[in-house]
Amino acid sequence: MLGGLRLVFFGTPEFAVPALAALVDAGVTPLLVVSQPDRPAGRGKRLAAPPVARWARERGLPVAQPERVATPGFLAELRGLVPDVAAVVAFGQLFPRELLDLPRLGCVNVHASLLPRWRGAAPIQAAIAAGDAETGVTTMLMEEGLDSGPTLLRRATPIGEAETAGELAGRLAALGAELLVETLAELAAGRLAPVPQPAEGITRAPKRPRGAGRLDWGLPAAELARRILAASPTPGVEAEIEGRPARLLRARPLAARPAPAAAPGTLLGLEGEALAVATGDGSVLGLLELQRPGRRVLAAREFVNGERLGLGARLR
């Protein structure tokens, strides 16, 4: 289907690996796989290759990891490859005009939202935090603006009630891989007409801060649940429970009790499989998964039984 396409692949994190694998399965051997340089990782801060570079090397594919794709030497290397198209998935650098114009079919990007909603670096987290009922993936032709290029194809998918950003990212990575193969086949055959993005409906999803955040328990339960899910598994949301930190990984709002007298942040005990917490506006949040530092993730009932938490304890 795509075996004769001269393609350069740009991608860095785990999210991009399914797309590269799908292209290889479709008969495309990339002329070059381009990824970000190795970075310090883990407790020892040793240099580690990004997932895309590691996957490509394990399969004998040529890999380049330029500090900047705009350098004349790297651009000259790409020019010498004479690519038909560049496929770009979560690469992490802006492309200069010279690179955008280099492949004859352009640079095709897979973006994890239904553009023009959630342009930017963190569209998955933004969609969950905003309470969107659905999101999806969009393929587009890149231009110098951030995620502003004309769109090619899109696929929508509902967001689960208690779905974390990590789980949604896994589903969108698989969906985006399928859509990329379909897009490139249609584009190469001349059957796709790029569609300019509308000026209405544009929202921004900037890069999220590093490090686990803290919650204001005076906010309504629905908003707090969305914040927890959007940050799970990384960078996470932390709370202090009986003087020790714990990471909150999954939550959902519970039916509010009649005029609860407990202050926001007060533990109300188990309700079914959820650890109930008093929150703002008389609402109740149900914590479903928690984790102490260095320990495994526990369901709320396991956590409560292991900790022997007393009613009335406060989260901070």
Structure overview:
- The structure is a single chain.
- This protein is an alpha/beta fold and 316 residues long.
- It folds into two domains: 7-188, Formyl transferase, N-terminal domain (Rossmann fold, 3-Layer(aba) Sandwich); 221-307, Formyl transferase, C-terminal domain (Methionyl-tRNA Fmet Formyltransferase, Chain A, domain 2, Roll), CATH 3.10.25.10.
- It has helices at residues 17-25, 51-58, 72-81, 97-100, 123-129, 165-188, 221-230, 300-307, and strands at 7-11, 32-34, 39-41, 46-48, 63-64, 85-89, 107-111, 134-141, 151-158, 237-241, 244-254, 267-271, 274-278, 284-291, 298-299.
- The strands form three sheets. Strands 5-2-1-6-7-8-9 form a seven-stranded mixed beta sheet.
- Strand 6, helix 4 and strand 7 form a beta-alpha-beta unit.
- Helix 1 (17-25) runs parallel beside helix 6 and helix 5 (123-129) runs antiparallel to helix 7.
- The longest helix has 24 residues, at 165-188.
- The protein is elongated, with a radius of gyration of 22 Å.
- The model has no long low-confidence stretch (mean pLDDT 93).
